[in-house]
Amino acid sequence: MEQGRLDFSCDYLEGAHDRILRRLVDTNLEKMAGYGFDPISQSATRRIREACERPGAEIQFLEGGTQANEIMISCLLEPWQGVIAATSGHVSVHEAGAIEAGGHKVLELPGQHGKLEASQIQSCMEAFRSDSNHEHMVEPGLVYISQPTEYGTLYSKAELEALSRACHENALKLYCDGARLAYALASPENDASLSDLSRLCDAFYIGGTKCGALIGEAAVVPDPKLIPHFFTRIKQHGALLAKGRLLGTQFDELFKDGLYFEIGKKAVAQARRIEERLEKRGIPLLFKSPTNQVFFIISRQKMEELGRKVAYSFWEWRGNDAVVRLSTSWATRDEDVEALLKLL
Amino acid sequence: MEQGRLDFSCDYLEGAHDRILRRLVDTNLEKMAGYGFDPISQSATRRIREACERPGAEIQFLEGGTQANEIMISCLLEPWQGVIAATSGHVSVHEAGAIEAGGHKVLELPGQHGKLEASQIQSCMEAFRSDSNHEHMVEPGLVYISQPTEYGTLYSKAELEALSRACHENALKLYCDGARLAYALASPENDASLSDLSRLCDAFYIGGTKCGALIGEAAVVPDPKLIPHFFTRIKQHGALLAKGRLLGTQFDELFKDGLYFEIGKKAVAQARRIEERLEKRGIPLLFKSPTNQVFFIISRQKMEELGRKVAYSFWEWRGNDAVVRLSTSWATRDEDVEALLKLL
Amino acid sequence: MEQGRLDFSCDYLEGAHDRILRRLVDTNLEKMAGYGFDPISQSATRRIREACERPGAEIQFLEGGTQANEIMISCLLEPWQGVIAATSGHVSVHEAGAIEAGGHKVLELPGQHGKLEASQIQSCMEAFRSDSNHEHMVEPGLVYISQPTEYGTLYSKAELEALSRACHENALKLYCDGARLAYALASPENDASLSDLSRLCDAFYIGGTKCGALIGEAAVVPDPKLIPHFFTRIKQHGALLAKGRLLGTQFDELFKDGLYFEIGKKAVAQARRIEERLEKRGIPLLFKSPTNQVFFIISRQKMEELGRKVAYSFWEWRGNDAVVRLSTSWATRDEDVEALLKLL
Amino acid sequence: MEQGRLDFSCDYLEGAHDRILRRLVDTNLEKMAGYGFDPISQSATRRIREACERPGAEIQFLEGGTQANEIMISCLLEPWQGVIAATSGHVSVHEAGAIEAGGHKVLELPGQHGKLEASQIQSCMEAFRSDSNHEHMVEPGLVYISQPTEYGTLYSKAELEALSRACHENALKLYCDGARLAYALASPENDASLSDLSRLCDAFYIGGTKCGALIGEAAVVPDPKLIPHFFTRIKQHGALLAKGRLLGTQFDELFKDGLYFEIGKKAVAQARRIEERLEKRGIPLLFKSPTNQVFFIISRQKMEELGRKVAYSFWEWRGNDAVVRLSTSWATRDEDVEALLKLL
Question: C6-13+264-343: which CATH topology?
C-alpha cells in the first residue's frame, strides 16, 4: 500500500472487476425496487441457482463474510446447539466473537492445515452421545468448514462427501464458508463443483468481496425450508440493504458468462509461480498450496528484510522461524509477481 | 419501476451520485488497506469531523440504517436499559425486532407526526423514578429520535436543545437517526446544523443510502469514550467491511465541496411543488412537510386511480380515507415531477 | 411486616404450607438423584399430569415466575417472533426486560382489567398480515395471558376457548402465566379447570411461590414436542437445580389429596369479606374481583391514613385518587382480616 | 440411591443441614418482605460480609451454580470480551452453553487437574496483544477459576495472589466459582481464607447447594461498583426469588457460629480415609486430593464390579483404564464410609 512497495498481504486490496463497475454506471439512474426485489438481483439469483444446478435454492445477498457466517449459522442452529469448527476456522478466531454474541458455542477440533476430517466428526459425536452428562452440554448442531480453508487448502469431492455423510448420519448440518470460493473453483486440483457443494452442504456462501466484487457474499440455501423467514432474519440482523441492487449487480456480473469460474485462475497460477521460486531458493513451504495463498517458513531476520520491500501477512511463529503468507488476487498484476520473484 | 409508470414511492430508487461512481472507477485498481484504514476512508473521516466541527469525534462507516441503529443503540445502552422512541419510530416498528434481538426493550411514547417532546421525556422519567417497583422494570437509558422523522418532520434547534437537556438531566443519552439527514439540512425550515447535532446528541448517524450514496451510513460519536472498542463491536455485529474503501468513497465525495448540504435541496423544492398542487386541488395534506416527503389524505378510490399511474407509499387508514406518501429524492427528475403534477 | 402492623401487601409474605415443610424434614437425609430425577419429583410429575388429565405432558419445575415466563416464551417463539401481551401483563412491565434480554419483542395490546379478548388477537393478526411491510416487522408468535390476571380477574372457559381458537387459527401459540392459579381454581366464579388449560394452552405454569410453596413453579407442556430439549434449555438458562427434590417436594405435596385445589379457597373468601366491607362503607371498588386481590379507589389522604395501620400495595393514580390493592393469601389469618375490617 | 447400595456419586445427594430446616420451620409463618429485603436475608448478608472482612461488599443470593456463573460473568464482562477458563472448567463444559447464550466466548486454556497458572494468563495476554489482528478477536476480560476446582484441587494463597496479580496487570478480572468452597475451607492444606478471596477476586460465590444448603449460592462482589444494578440484572435473568427468605435462611444459618467453616471437615477426613485405603490396595490415585473428592484409576472390569455395590462418578478413559470419582459430603455417614472401605 505504501508507494513503490509491493503488496501481497491479502486478496482484498483492489476494488471490483471492471465489468461490475461498468454495470453500476450503466444502470445507475434506473429506478428499481429496494431490498433485493430489483430485476438485477432477481437475475443474479437465477444465474446462481443455475450455476448450482438448484432451481429451487434460496439465494440472499449479504455484505461480508463474518455477517454471512453469523446469520446463517444462527439460522441453522437450534438455541441449545453449537457449531463444530477447526481451531483455525474463521468463526473460531477472527470474528470477534460474533457466533457467541449470537448465543452459540464454537466447538473447536484441531484441523490439518485448516481441514477437518469426517472421522473427527464421527468421533466427536460418539463421545458426545456416550457422555452421561451430555444433556448438560452443548449439543453439536452444525459443522463449519471453509473451501478453500483459511490456509488455502481444498477439500476434495470425496472428502466433502465423507464429511456430508458423517454430518447427516449424526444429525448435524454442514455449512461451508466460501469467502475465497472462486480460488477453489479455479484450482487445477479442485474437483468439487458448485453443484457438489449444493448437494453436500445444507448452506454455504459464495464469496464476492475477495473474488472480484466491491462488496457482497451470496448465501445459498439449497433447501429453503431449512431457514424459514430468512429475509426477515436478515433484516433483524441489520443486514438487509435498501439498495439491494448494489449486491445483485456484483453477482449478476460474476455469474454472467462464467466470470466467477475464470476470475481466480490467474491468481492461482501466480501463486504457483511464487511457490516454485521459493522451492528453487530452498525456502521451505508450510505445504503445497492449491489456491491463491502461499505459506512459507523463514527466519525472523529474513522476514524483516522481505518486509521492507513487500507487504505480506505474518501467520505464526514456529520456534524462531516465522510462517509468512503471500496472497495473490484476481487483480494481481504479472509485473508485480515478476518484481516479487526477484526479491525472493 | 414499471415501464412508463412514475415512481415516487421512496427515496432509494436510484443508484448513487455521479461523483461517487466516478471516484469508485478512478480509484478501482489502487491497492488499499482493508477495514477502513484506507486513505479514502481516512479522508472521509476528516471531512465529516470538520463538517461536525468535532475534530476528535469517532466516525465509523456502516452499511444501513437498521444496522446503524442496532449497533449504536446496543453500544450506548447498559444491559438493563431500554430505549425510548416514538411509537412511529423506525426502531419501534420496522426493524424486525433488531433492538430486542440485541437484548433491549423499546419503550414507546406517542409522537406528534414522529416527534417527541422534551416534556414527555421528563414525565416518563419522573414516573419511572417514582414507581416503587422500578428496580423490577426496564430503566430508560437512551432516547431515539430521527431527523427528519419517519414523517419527514423536523426538530428545531430549540427543540433539540430542550430534548438534549431533558435527556442529560435524567441520565439519558440522546441518539439521532439521520437516515434522511441531507433532506433536513436542505430544508429552508431547518435551523439545526451538523455541529448542533454533534453538540446535542451523544451519537447519531449521517445517512448515505437515501441521500445520494450507493450504500452507507456514517456513525458519529462526538465523544469516542462513549463507545469503547467500537471497531471490534462493529466486527462482532458482522458489519465491518473488508473493503471499507467502498463506504469511505461514498462519504468522501458527499462531504467534498459541501455536496451533502446541496444534494437534498432540489428534492425538497420538488416536494413543495407537489404540496402546492395538492392544496390547489383541495386535497388535504396530513401536515405541511418541511422535507422531501409529502403526506396527504384521499379516498380509497382516488388512491387506486392514482396507483395506476404513479407508484406511491400507502401509509395508513383514516376511517375510510387513506394517508398516502409521495417521496422525492436527490435524483428525482423535474420532468417526472411535471408529469406527476398533471396527474394530481 | 412491621411489628403490630397488618400486612395485606401481597401474597408471598409467608413461608410454605405446613405439609411441605414436614415432608422436607421427613425426607431430608434420604439420598436422591439430582436434577429432578429423584422419586419425589417423579411423583410430583405424575400427580400434575393426572390433575391436568394429560398423561404425556412434559412437566418441569422452575424457581420463579419471571424465570418460567422467560424460559417458556423463548422456547416457544421462533427467533423472528414476538409475544402479544396486555399492557399490564407481567412480561410487559415487571420483568426488567427479561423477554427482550432473551431477544423477543413484547407486542402490547390494551387489556380490560388485565384481560385480552379473542377479537383483539384476530384484529391484530389481520393488521399484521395486511401490512405490506410485515416482513420488516416482528411477527406475533404467541399470546401471553395470566390466569388470574395481574388484576385478579378471570378468563371464563368460553373466553379461553375463544382465545385458543383465535390463536390457533392465526398460527399463534397460547401461553398462560399461572403464578396465582390456585386462587383461580378456588374461585366460585371459575369454570376453567387444569384440564381445560391443558387442552387450550400450548404451555402454562402452575404457580407455587404465591400458592403455598416455599419456592417453585411447575411448567406444563401438554405436547412435549413443542419444546424439544427442554431440560437442556432450562440448564442453559441457569434454572436447573442440582437438588431438584426441593421443587419436587413442593408440588408433590400441593398435588397430593387435592391440596392445590383447596389452598386458595379461604383467601378468596376473605377477599370477598373485604370487598363487602368496602362496599358497605361506600368505598368504590375498581371492579368486583373473583380471586384473592381487592382493588379499590380512595383519596390520597385516606390512603396515607390506612397506610399507618396496614401495609397495602399502591397500584396507580386515577386523577387525585389512588387505586389500592389488598391481597390475601393461603396463610392469611382470620383474625388479621377481622382487624382489617375494623379499620376500613 | 438404589436400596441397599452405597452412594458416593456426588455431594448433593441429601437435603440440608438440620439447623437450616429447623430455622425454616421456626420462621415459617412470620410475614416478611419479598425479594431479599426480609430480615433473615439482611442478617445473612451481614454475616457473610463479616466472614469476608468486607463490610461494604455486595451480597446477593442466587439459586444455583450455573446461574451464579452466568449472571456474574455476564455482569463483569464487556460485550466484546470473553472469559478465560480451564478446559475442564464448569463454564467450559457442563453449563449447556450458558455463557455463550449470554453472548460471551469461553477461551479455554489447558488446566493442571483443573488449575490455571498465573504464567498462562500472562502468556495468553501477551499473545493476544501482540497479534496484529487482535481487534478482530475476542478480548479476554476475565479469568474463571474454581476453588476447589472441578478436580477438588486447591489454589494456595500464593497461587491466588499470583493469579490476581497477573489478572490485574493485564486488565482482567478474576472470578472464583466456589460451588464447593466449604470443602476448600475445611481442608488442612488450604491457606486461602474468605478474606483472601475477597481481597484477590473481583467477584466469587460461596456455594450452598453442595455445602449443606437445600438451595442457594451467595454471590460476593467486594467492590459493588463493579456490578451496577445487580439486583435488576438478577431479576432480568429470572433469578430473583419472591420469597428471598428461603435463600437468606440457608446462609444465615451456615454463617452463624462458623458452621460453614466446620461443615466440610468430616467429609474431607472421610475422603482421606478412602484415599488411604486405595493406596494400601495399590490402586493408583489420579493425584492426592486435598478436599472431598477422590479420583483413582482402575480397569473397566473392576469399575463395573465396583458399580454393582457403590454408585460412583465415571470421569474419563485413560487408555483402557477408567478414572473414577468418589465424593463425600457434609452428610456422609461414617458407617457408609466403613462399608465402602470394605469394598475397595
Answer: Aspartate Aminotransferase, domain 1 (3.90.1150)
